Amino acid sequence: MLKYYKLIKQKIISINWGVTWEEEEKILKELSLQRKNFDDSYIYDSIFQFKAQVYFLKNTDKIILWIVSMFGFFILLLKNFFPKKSIKEKNTYDIAYFYSKTIFSNELVKGKRLVYIEPRKGELLFRDIVYLLGVLVKTQFNFGLLAISVYRIAQIRYAIEAYNVKSVWVNMEYSASCGIVRDFCHHECIELNNFMHGEKLLTLRDAFCSFDKFYVWDLHYKGMFEELMFKGEIIIDNPFSICGNKKKKFKSKNSVCYFLKGIESPEELRIINEVLSNITRKGYFVKVKDHPRQKVCSNKLKGVSILESEGKDISEILCENEYIIAQYSTVLIQGWSMGSKVVIDDVSNETLIKELEDRSYFFFKKKEKIYRLSEFLSK
């Protein structure tokens, strides 16, 4: 059952590529009308985000999710209620964060004391248990939602007790727990701010997310999350754009780097291999970079140079290449922000390109000239 539970969780946090945005948009409108029948409590934002995420799940999947999540909820509750108590720091910190400081711009962190909270750190007080059980009743015993909420709330409680933080910076718009977590933070008189950390598309998964402030990379994403019924303030802040001048100074001419997703099919890899060989024959210096968290695919390509990126920051890699190519990747907007010439691979997976167009992909909405690989090859 645990194996199936993990597959179900993966479905929930993934974009449903098998459904068009037009279909999902109808569901979003339907849920939006239902949401108006409830009060402004952020807890209901979580409830409706969860409804959006599990809309297409089979009933059997929902039952498995509920059962496993019920056990997970109580295990996490007990585990974090009886830990070694956090040791209070003599100095207080302004902000707790849980992912990476690279998604914050230098201007935002200037003069602030940030502390990283490790995934294993968690703590719950008796009043937190009471709060969570109250939310459990309010959500009509939605253990699938509460199991993911208790984990983050325990981390935040640890941050409060150990470091006396006044604000929490997260990257969890894809998590239906965000509304509940925001409600908890307000009970503790602290702010919950979310930061864009990867490419975004129109998807039911991110509908109804809720934060005090949501920092996004471009006005395009502001409109996107407004359409997705986001509740809170949206602020435009691109952490990569400040590197633009440095990028233009150091990049190598005619250098190309292809960024793999790590989940390419054998047929896609065959086409990519053929394309890269073609680009090489045109006189470009071509390298390939594997996805840092997915399986290695570059070893299935023949006659290409593999980018050795160990110890290198992504901005350093981008600074070395004039052209960056990918099907669909966060690295494209990072490179674009830093002055690289972006090339969208519309050759190796034409179906994906149609789906990206359908879901309002950033580069298909920009007025600036963006290369498509099919055009690049015909130069």
Commentary on this structure:
The chain has 379 residues and is an alpha/beta fold. It has two domains: 2-239, no CATH class; 243-377, Rossmann fold, CATH 3.40.50.720. It has 15 helices and twelve strands. The strands form two sheets. It has a six-stranded parallel β-sheet. Strands 9-8-7-10-11-12 form a six-stranded parallel β-sheet, with helices on both faces. α11 (266-281) links the parallel β7 and β8. α2 (21-35) runs antiparallel to α3.
The percentage of residues in β strands lies in 5-15%
How confident overall, as mean pLDDT? 90
Name the helicity range.
40-55%
Strand count, sense and barrel status of the largest sheet are: 6 strands, parallel
Distance between the termini: 53 Å
DSSP summary: helix tally: 15
Task: Please state the structural category.
Answer: alpha/beta
Query: What order do the strands of the largest sheet run in, or round the barrel if closed?
Result: 2-1-3-4-5-6
**Into how many domains do the coordinates divide?**
2
By DSSP, the count of extended strands is 12
Radius of gyration: 22 Å
List its salient traits.
Rossmann fold, 12 strands, alpha/beta, 6-stranded parallel sheet, 379 residues, 2 domains, 15 helices
What is the fold's blueprint, element by element?
Layout: H1 2-13, H2 21-35, H3 42-53, H4 59-81, E1 95-97, H5 106-109, E2 114-116, H6 126-138, H7 143-163, E3 167-170, H8 178-187, E4 191-195, E5 210-216, H9 219-227, E6 231-236, H10 244-250, E7 252-259, H11 266-281, E8 285-289, E9 305-306, H12 314-319, E10 321-326, H13 330-337, E11 341-344, H14 350-358, E12 371-372, H15 373-377
Parallel strand pairs: 1-2, 1-3, 3-4, 4-5, 5-6, 7-8, 7-10, 8-9, 10-11, 11-12
